[in-house]
Specification:
Protein name: Alcohol oxidase
Family: Belongs to the GMC oxidoreductase family.
Bound molecules: flavin-adenine dinucleotide
Structural class: alpha/beta
GO biological process, one term: secondary metabolite biosynthetic process
GO molecular function: flavin adenine dinucleotide binding; oxidoreductase activity, acting on CH-OH group of donors
Number of strands: 19
Shape: globular
Keywords: FAD, Flavoprotein, Signal
């Protein structure tokens, strides 16, 4: 059929057909898991590369054709997500906030908004500054390229109308994930860009070469005919004939099991939906087990396996294999604050009201899509981002915010469980973050825009840190999620700076043709105290960019994995997903996860080639 999924499902192996052991077990067939499984199973015929790879995925395929259309980028089908909530968040008025964790083959890439951008060079250089040699932007750029194929946009008239610019040299030409600009630009976007320029935010010619700050165009991960290009279509479907690659669906990895010498030798798995105590299967891994279960479950699996904070494991009755306090800590995201302006004299057509109020336009939109896969419905969540440096947002106040951050007692706003090592790690992070706060080449707030007056202001470099903690009374229940959103008052100060700057943007000369009228926060809220209250009632927990819960940092700084992505204190176990991020980059995370997992695969292959210790 259209997706060829009958054939795909025939390939999916039955638990009864499992071998006793594989060379590699990849835990989680989400975005990073499919990348790593593809690369590790490359070259199946020539020894010694004939590696048997098993991917174990909790979810299944999403074969709904609508999930491949750009409009799926804002739908987030509940069946493709874990049904979880965070604990009440004191920093945002005790609201619980949304949690996004994918539970489907392809993971986040199957359901995400298809905004395909990278962070700035500084974002990744900061990882290296934290003691992670080899992870700066120049070393990651080859992997960004390797994962991508940039297609020249199909409609030159749209490119000319929007003045969309790009530099093909920063993209790959034959990578598995396709990217391009869709054949539509809302006219209001051009006005918004011009207004940004007027308030000191220039437009980048191309952001993906390490310049994702100020204002810029962002491609979407879609193919030339505007179908979602994602881990399944790019890394899994094309390799379905490989005899050495197997995918087991609807199974949950409970634990990784270790030898006396603390070598990870097998995974214990259980059929999805079966109760605690139901039969499990143990599958062996001769070479390595790679955790790719995402920011929420990679730390949970580690903790269940005896790798995590000693006190937590003891409370849960789990024998300690490696006392790593950082497992499940360091949780970061981009908390969003919804800001709303109404454009009283909006241009036509616009994304806010034109399709609702003009039947002719609405019919044209549908027709354009069904006949040509073009027009407004070809845009997923958008193509324009402002990533605003703090020095631009708050030129007179940024030094005071930095001074406040540096004067804080580090433990004051961190989870009570933080050890001396973790505190030292946070102090290092704070040094780096405050340097970013005064950098003109790093975005601190993201303002996505697409011609409408309302958007989510996203805090790109928060000081607050959350946790993912095993339920000690039910190890197989979903873990306790605490984002600690805005718990550090510096995050509130940064958000207030962003709100004020948004107002400055709306007051720019070019913007006046749209007559922007503030709806929320509301013009009556002006003082720090008033805006602080607004922030706490309107900020959310997540933009689905959660990361950092098995961070790559030196162990003496509370890290969980080394720059080779190997888990400290054991052998044969690595992390290849978004959990390894030590400091959240100022970008949507999908492209970064492709680069991380491509690099992870190379690291794994290199150690296999050089012989394991
Ligand atoms: C709704 C949503 C919208 C987003 N929008 C964008 C966007 O527009 N642009 C952008 O750049 N980024 C976006 N992102 C972020 C990006 O998609 C993610 O950061 C990325 O996909 C994470 O990849 P991962 O491999 O670390 O985890 P995932 O892709 O989440 O993969 C983890 C996999 O592990 C499986 N799993 C979990 N536990 C177990 C277990 N115990 N045993 C076996 N399998 C298990 C899960 O089912 C899942 O398939 C979005 C994410 C979401 C969820």
């Amino acid at each position: 059929n259209y997706l060829g999924h009958d054939e795909l499902e025939r390939r999916q192996i039955d638990p009864g057909a499992l071998k006793t052991a594989y060379d590699y077990i990849v835990v989680g067939g989400g975005q990073s898991g499919l990348v790593i499984a593809n690369r590790l199973s490359e070259d199946p015929t020539s020894e010694p590369s004939h590696m048997l790879v098993l991917v174990i995925e909790y979810g299944t395929f999403d074969n709904n054709p609508a999930q491949l259309d750009p409009t799926s980028g804002e739908k987030y089908p509940p069946g493709d997500l874990f049904n979880v909530t965070a604990v009440p968040q004191p920093g945002i008025g005790n609201r619980t906030g949304t949690v996004y964790a994918a539970s489907v083959v392809g993971g986040g890439s199957t359901i995400n908004g298809m905004l395909f951008e990278r962070g700035s060079a500084e974002d990744y250089d900061n990882w290296e500054r934290l003691g992670n040699s080899g992870w700066g932007f120049s070393q990651l750029l080859p992997y960004f390229k390797k994962s991508t194929k940039f297609n020249t946009p199909v409609d030159p008239a749209v490119v000319a109308f929007g003045n969309i610019t790009w530099d093909p040299s920063v993209y790959g030409t034959d990578g598995p994930i396709q990217a391009t600009y869709p054949p539509w630009v809302w006219p209001g976007t051009k006005i918004q860009l011009k207004a940004f320029n007027e308030v000191g935010v220039p437009t980048q010619f191309e952001a993906a070469g390490g310049k994702s700050y100020n204002a810029y165009w962002v491609p979407n991960n879609v193919n030339r005919t505007n179908y979602r290009s994602y881990a399944r279509s790019g890394y899994y479907d094309p390799v379905k004939s490989r005899p050495n690659l197997s995918l087991l669906l609807n199974y949950r990895v409970n634990e990784v099991l270790f030898s006396k010498a603390k070598h990870a030798h097998s995974a214990r798995i259980q059929a999805r939906g079966t109760p605690n105590g139901a039969p499990t299967i143990t599958v062996g891994a001769n070479t390595e087990i790679v955790l790719c279960a995402g920011w929420l479950h990679t730390p949970q699996i580690l903790q269940r396996s005896g790798i995590g904070p000693k006190a937590l494991l003891t409370a849960a009755g789990i024998p300690i294999i490696s006392d790593l306090p950082g497992v499940g800590s360091n949780l970061q995201d981009h908390p969003p604050a919804e800001i709303r302006f109404s454009y009283e004299t909006d241009v036509f057509p616009n994304p806010t009201s034109s399709a609702q109020t003009n039947a002719t336009f609405a019919a044209w939109v549908q027709d354009e899509w069904t006949q040509h896969r073009s027009g407004p419905l070809s845009i997923p969540t958008g193509n324009n981002i402002g990533a605003i440096p703090l020095t631009t947002m708050n030129p007179t106040g940024y030094k005071a915010i930095i001074a406040k951050a540096l004067a804080q007692t580090p433990a004051a706003y961190l989870p009570k469980t933080y050890t001396a090592e973790q505190l030292a790690g946070f102090v290092e992070q704070r040094k780096i973050l405050t340097a970013s706060y005064q950098s003109p080449t790093n975005g601190i707030f993201e303002v996505p825009f697409r011609g409408s007056g309302s958007t989510a202001l996203c805090l790109e470099k928060p000081m607050s840190r959350g946790t993912v903690t095993l339920q000690t009374t039910d190890l197989y229940a979903e873990p306790i999620i605490d984002f600690n959103t805005n718990i550090n008052p510096v995050d509130v100060d940064l958000t207030i700076s962003a709100v004020r700057f948004y107002r400055t943007w709306m007051a720019a000369p070019s913007m006046q043709q749209l007559s922007p009228a503030e709806v929320s926060p509301g013009t009556n809220l002006t003082t720090d105290a008033e805006l602080s209250t607004w922030v706490s009632t309107s900020m959310g927990t997540s933009t689905a960019h959660s990361c950092g819960t098995a961070a790559m940092m030196p162990q003496k700084l509370g890290g969980v994995v080394s720059p080779e992505l190997l888990v400290y204190g054991v052998t044969g176990l690595s992390v290849g997903d978004i959990s390894m991020i030590p400091l959240i980059p100022a970008t949507h995370t999908c492209a970064t996860v492709y680069a991380i997992s491509e690099k992870a695969a190379d690291l794994i292959k290199a150690r296999a080639a050089s012989g394991y210790p």
